[in-house]
Design goal:
Blueprint lengths: L2 H29 L8 H10 L1 H29 L4 H33 L4 H40 L4 H23 L4 H4 L3 H16 L11
């Protein structure tokens, strides 16, 4: 790898690490303990009892979306010499995902406004739960675009000669999991819980690629200007 590629790779790896930490932290560490979509009153009580935690989850997702936008550009710069059209397409799909996830945060903010300014408590709790569920669907819509991006990135990594082909296979498998999981969420939601363990593949594949970006192989390869 050239020095320029190594610098871009390390910065991309750092942004990827931020995305992984912020994304998992927001969804699993901060939001999941507060939200139960089968219990509007319990969810409302949990959120109102921990407003800082709920808002911190929104901030973490916003940081993730901003980092995703930067990573999309960096990955394009790294892989454009491999297949310019495919690299550009991958960047566009990742940017669409980042925009959808960022815009979708308004559903969480709406839920918070409903709960914190409620006059009719029961109605506010029910409406807030709908917006919280809408956020979940919006997140999965973003993952449709990210799934396509991951498939493209898998091909780019496979063809690049910059990284081991195994990373390309892992990213492609992650893309399939994202696409199938989002399809199930929209078309057969009752199966979502059963499919959830498959997302372990995405965590492993993306974490492995993130670490490879952070610690790239030092060998001569295609130059990127």
């Amino acid at each position: 790898m050239t020095d320029d590629l190594i610098r871009k790779s390390r910065l991309a790896g750092l942004l990827y690490l931020i995305i992984i930490v912020m994304g998992l932290g927001a969804e699993l560490g901060l939001r999941a303990p507060l939200i139960d979509l089968s219990d509007a009153a319990g969810t409302a009580a949990a959120i109102l009892a921990a407003p800082g935690q709920f808002r911190l989850a929104i901030i973490a997702d916003l940081v993730m979306a901003l980092s995703d936008a930067g990573l999309a550009v960096l990955l394009y710069l790294i892989f454009r010499s491999v297949a310019p059209g495919l690299a550009l397409s991958a960047m566009v799909f990742r940017l669409v995902q980042a925009v959808l996830i960022a815009a979708n945060l308004m559903a969480l903010q709406t839920a918070w406004l409903l709960l914190s300014n409620a006059h009719d408590v029961a109605d506010a709790q029910s409406l807030a739960l709908i917006f919280l569920e809408l956020h979940g669907h919006g997140y999965d819509l973003g993952l449709v675009f990210f799934g396509v991006n991951s498939l493209m990135m898998g091909v780019l990594v496979w063809r690049s000669g910059l990284f081991a082909k195994a990373f390309g296979v892992g990213l492609a498998l992650a893309g399939l999991v994202y696409l199938i999981g989002s399809g199930i969420r929209f078309l057969a939601p009752d199966l979502s819980a059963a499919f959830a363990p498959a997302y372990g593949v995405t965590i492993l594949a993306e974490t492995a690629f993130c670490l490879r970006l952070l610690f790239p192989p030092r060998r001569h390869g295609r130059s990127v200007s």
